[in-house]
Amino acid sequence: MRLVLVGPPGAGKGTQAQYIASNLSIPKISTGDIFRANVSGGTELGKLAKTYMDRGDLVPDEVTIAMVRDRLAEDDAQDGFLLDGFPRNVSQAEVLRDMLKDWGQTLDLVLELVVDDEEVVRRLAGRRTCSQCGRIWHVEFDDKKDDICDACGGRLFQRDDDKEETVRHRLEVYQEQTAPLVSFYVEEDILVGVDATGPVEEVTQRAMEAIRPYMG
Ligand code: AP5
Ligand code: MG
């Protein structure tokens, strides 16, 4: 199964990706996570990406595409993958389509997680991420009173780009650059929208029901 998750910042892409990828036994490839790992590792890629991420802008296409191409070429991605955060504009989508075509592959499905802006701001303001296992938590919805990950004991942190004004800019970038992907994939006839409001488990159930007809 080759799957893409699209949706505004805070829609729950990373949260749902953990469960969907594990249900389908495919690797979860989150471009935001790969960039953040490079930022904490102090790599050249991380230094470059950080200047864009801190503003809430997209990292330039050539850098992002090269990184995704390398990741998709790895062994574990040959029989399927779940992309979270890529593609993020129409030119990335065109490159992905052509790259997969060269490898004799096609995307099976693009899931669009649908939530409104008000919910996005609520979700991002309370988000905490585990520095050790990457698991995503929410202070209010998961009733997190300490900053320790209940899954692995690691320390939780708040993302630099979750400041209110950066969130607002990320939403604008989404509307301008990423939202056009919806009609791109409607035309390719592989887009399915999923209501991403309500409890996490219900969203996962809706997503799995949407995926089932596309499973080989
Ligand atoms: P990225 O890390 O992809 O950020 P994003 O798209 O803005 O999305 P988020 O990770 O903020 O939200 P999410 O949808 O994953 O929500 P989550 O599950 O965490 O990208 C960051 C940056 O990297 C970009 O700005 C850009 O600079 C760069 N970048 C990445 N990819 C790129 C690309 N392809 N090209 C160029 N640049 C790129 O959930 C949010 C919160 O809500 C959590 O606290 C969670 O616990 C909670 N929550 C989730 N679901 C629910 C629910 N159902 N009910 C209640 N709370 C919930
Ligand atoms: Mg995410």
TrEMBL record:
ATP binds at residues 10-15, 127, 198. It is an enzyme of class 2 (transferase). GO terms for molecular function: AMP kinase activity. Residues 127-161 form the Adenylate kinase active site lid domain. The keyword Transcription does not apply. Consists of three domains, a large central CORE domain and two small peripheral domains, NMPbind and LID, which undergo movements during catalysis. The LID domain closes over the site of phosphoryl transfer upon ATP binding. Assembling and dissambling the active center during each catalytic cycle provides an effective means to prevent ATP hydrolysis. Some bacteria have evolved a zinc-coordinating structure that stabilizes the LID domain. Monomer. Belongs to the adenylate kinase family. This is Adenylate kinase. It comes from Nonomuraea typhae. The gene is adk.
